[in-house]
Write a structure and sequence with these properties.
The chain is mainly alpha-helical. About 60% of the residues lie in helices and about 0% in strands. It is globular and about 45 Å long. The two termini are about 25 Å apart.
C-alpha cells in the first residue's frame, strides 16, 4: 500500500470531518461511522442518507424496504455492502 503524503492526509482528514458532520446531521450513529472509517470507507453524503434510512429500518415500526437509485457509478453497491457488512 502506498503511503499518503501530507497533502493527501489533510484531504482525507477534511473528508472525514465533513463526513462526520453530515452523518451527525442525518442521525447516523457514531459507532456505525467509526466502523466505516475502520474499514477505510468514507461515505459520500448520498450514501450517508442511505445508511441513516437503514438505521430507521432497525426500529420495529421502521420501513421494511429502502430504495436507493441513481446514475451508474456513485457508490450504491459499495454503500449497500458496507451497511450489511458492518451489521
Amino acid at each position: 500500500m502506498a503511503i499518503a503524503n501530507s497533502s493527501q492526509l489533510r484531504q482525507i482528514e477534511t473528508l472525514g470531518t465533513e463526513c462526520a458532520l453530515t452523518a451527525q446531521r442525518l442521525g447516523v450513529p457514531r459507532d456505525q461511522l467509526a466502523r466505516f472509517f475502520a474499514g477505510r470507507y468514507i461515505p459520500q453524503p448520498k450514501q450517508l442518507e442511505f445508511h441513516a434510512a437503514c438505521r430507521l429500518a432497525d426500529a420495529s415500526d421502521g420501513p421494511d424496504q429502502i430504495g436507493f437509485g441513481g446514475a451508474r457509478g456513485p457508490g450504491k453497491s459499495r454503500s449497500t455492502i458496507a451497511s450489511v457488512a458492518q451489521g
